[in-house]
């Protein structure tokens, strides 16, 4: 039984390495340019090992997409937008927790082209959650679809830029600033008065 457990863990590790290699390659080239050999080389396994678990690149893509979307949906499902409509900082804190739960995976994900299927799907999951939260909050004169598109596109762009710029700023600080911007708009960045005026 112990031997079986060891084999299972090895299989899990190998498949994870293959999937992570695929995600990494997606940040560098188009899907139709990625070969099984590319994935095997990036995962440091041979092609036969890849074919032991997958029929080809598209099966790997399907598994990666399902895994990422499943993780993301699980992370945002308890996001309480209705009770946080006046305090979206909490929403960004939840997103920070989701990203921190597997920062390397999301790091590779957000380096992928913004028009890729996976990014569009993540954006769609988040957009649906925001739209439903806005509807639950019973806001007046609100175009729910437009507001959800505006907020979620901004959120995804903020995180994409953070990952692609070397994660210089702490993620928690970034999320706090983004939440403040949602609450106060550009007013939170008012120009500092020139102390030399009137001298």
Characteristic terms for this protein:
68% helix, single chain, 199 residues, elongated, 9 helices, mainly alpha
Mean pLDDT: 80
Gap between N and C termini: 83 Å
Q: Can you tell me the overall shape?
A: elongated
Major beta-sheet overview = none
Q: How much of the polypeptide forms β-strand, as a percent range?
A: under 5%
Structural class: mainly alpha
- Computed Rg: 21 Å
How would you characterize the overall build of this protein?
- This protein has helices spanning 2-26, 36-43, 47-53, 57-76, 89-101, 103-109, 117-136, 144-164, 171-184.
- Helix 1 packs across helix 2, helix 2 crosses helix 3 and helix 8 (144-164) runs antiparallel to helix 9 (171-184).
- It is mostly helical.
- Helix content is 68%, strand content 0%.
- The chain has 9 helices and no strands.
SSE blueprint and pairings:
Blueprint: H1 2-26, H2 36-43, H3 47-53, H4 57-76, H5 89-101, H6 103-109, H7 117-136, H8 144-164, H9 171-184
Could you provide a short overview of the structure?
With 199 residues, the protein is an all-alpha fold. Helix content is 68%, strand content 0%.
